[in-house]
Amino acid sequence: MSYTNSSMGSGSRTDRRAFEFGRTYVVRPKGKHQATIVWLHGLGDNGSSWSQLLESLPLPNIKWICPTAPTRPVALLGGFPCTAWFDMGELSEDCPDDLEGLDSSAAHVANLLSTEPADIKLGIGGFSMGAATALYSATCFAQGNYGNGSPYPVCLRTIIGLSGWLPGARNMRNKIQGSHEAARRAASLPILLCHGLCDEVVPHTHGERSNHALSLAGFQNLAFKYYDGYFIYCIVFNPVK
Fold this sequence. Notes:
Residues 25-224 form the Phospholipase/carboxylesterase/thioesterase domain. This is Acyl- thioesterase 2-like. By secondary structure, the chain is of the alpha/beta class. It has helices spanning 47-55, 99-114, 129-143, 169-177, 180-188, 204-217; strands at residues 2-4, 7-8, 20-21, 24-27, 35-40, 62-66, 71-74, 80-83, 121-127, 158-162, 191-196, 222-227.
């Protein structure tokens, strides 16, 4: 496992504010390199903790890139600063999305993937707020651009979201179904959503609604799995369906 130092901003025209991202930890494949997945941690966490977990998985052909989100004030925490991929208030469909923060983090992730070899399959996964950022990236890929209109530069082959939710769900369906190319990309992108039934931080109903919204928007290669317990870490031990 290795890491790189923090960088200022994402290197993309999507930035209007400067976000200083923390260390990026890399878990290199133990076998033939076939896929690279950027894995995004949850609110207040960092890339190191997930890199240690991912390094222990029996997946020798995957390179894992685990960045650390910027430290910023978070409205949900009363303005207390912590690592977060974007700002957020209450977890509600009526709460406005921080599209500027989402665009910046999605662009940072895309930049991390953009230097991978052309024959390597690219994906994004995450937990909680990281899952929300991964799903937002999926919608950017399908639409072909970020929320502010700048082009999305990476061809994604898979998305994984654990205990997350879908930002920007209200307007997504019209944006994707209004474009033949966007609909084609959405239909071809495999997405796996997993959620614990007893999750008290991000209730599983948010996962259900996200799955429904993605399906209505035309994401056809979609799987949603429930798991018993409070923590998504139990998914490898105790699946419900």
